[in-house]
Amino acid sequence: MVTRDIVCFSHLRWDFVYQRPNHLMVRAAAGRRVFYVEEPRVPEPGDVEAGTAPHLAMRVVAGVHVVTPVLPGAADAGTTAAALSALLDELCAREAIDRPILWYYTPMAVPWTRHIRASARVYDCMDFLAGFRGAPAGLLALEEELLHNADVVFTGGARLHERMADRHGRAYCFPSSVDAAHFRSAREAIAEPAGVAGLGRPRIGYAGVIDERLDLGLVAGVAAARPDWEIVLVGPLAKITPDELPAAPNIHATGIVDYAELPAYLGSWDIGWMPFAHNEATRYISPTKTPEYLAAGLRVVSTSIRDVVEPYGTRGLVEIADDVASTISAVERLLAEDRAAHLVRVDAFLATMSWDRTWLGMQAILTETQRRDRPVTTPDDSLVRRMERRETVRRATGRAATAGAGETA
User: Fold this and answer.
1) How far apart are the C-alpha atoms of 152 and 194, rounded to whole Å?
2) Which CATH architecture has domain 181-350?
C-alpha cells in the first residue's frame, strides 16, 4: 500500500499553543510528508505583502510543512473559497501531492477542499467549535457535510465521542494524551522562570489559552479570599481583552510561553488549577493539561468538567471543586497530601498514555480504512504493538519509519 501524504487543515496557528495537532502531525511526519495548512492570513495595510497576489508561505518545522495561505485584501466568502481552492491546487501540483489523506480540524475548510481527490478523509474533532465565542456562521452545516464525507472520525475525548458516535459509523475516541518525559522534567531542580521569580508560596497555576472557557469570577474569588496565595496564569489571551482579566496583587498573567519552557513554569508551582467555566465552550472539552500537570508532579484541582471527573476525579488523581469555598478546601487538602504516594498513583496511570501510542492507534485505523475490502471495526492492537516495536527500532537506528508491506496508511 502506498504511503500517502497528509494535508491537514487547522483553525490553529502552528506556533500558537502546542497541542494535539502539533503532537500528532510531528509524529505522522516521521513516516510520510505532512502539510499543515493554517487558516489564511490577511496582511495589514502597509504590510509588505498587502499589495501582492494571493500566495502560499511555507516553512518546515520538526519535519512538518507548515503552509499559510496569504490573502491580501478583504473578500467575501465565495471569493475567499475560490482563492483558497486555487492555492491548494497550486500546492498539490508544486509538491506532487497525489490522492492525499485530508485531515480536518475545522469544518470551515470544507468549501475549498471538496474537489480534492483524496485517499481518505479524516475528521479529528478536538473541540465543539460551534460553542466558542465568535464561531463562524455555517459551521454546524459544514460539519454535517464533513461527517457525511469523512471515512473516519477521531475525537479528543469521551464527551465528544458521545456526540459523534450516533452520527458516524466509524467514530473512535482518542482522548488527550501527554508527552510524559517532557513534563516529568518539571519534577527535577529547574531554574525558576523569570516570569514567576520571587513570588511567594503556595503558588496555584494555570497554563493554557485564556478565553471564555475560564471562570474568571472563580479566579478573582479565590484570589480575594486567599491573598496569601499566588495565582499564576500562563498563556495567551484569546477572544477576551486584558481588561476582562481579574486584577489583584496576587494574580500574575505571564502571557504565552514556549512549549519548551512549560515544565519550568509547572515545576515552580505547588498546585495545577483548571478553573473552567460551565458553558457551551466547555461542554465537550477534554483538557490536555490534565495529564501534563500530573506528569509534572503537580497536585491538581479542576472544576467538574466531565472528561476530567472521569477518569481523573473518580480515580483520586484530581480534586474536583466548582466554587471558591470548595476550591480553597481542595487546595488545602492537596498541600497537606503525601506527594510521594500521589506520584506512585499518577505514574501508574500515565504509563498507559503517550502521543506516540495515540498516533500509532490512529495509523492502524487509517490502514484498515484504506483497505476498502473490509470494514473498520476497532483498532487492531496487535498492529499497534508491531508499529510500536518498529518505531523503537527506527529511533534506535535512525532509519525512516516503515510499517511493513500492506501496513501503512
Assistant:
1) 45
2) 3-Layer(aba) Sandwich (3.40)
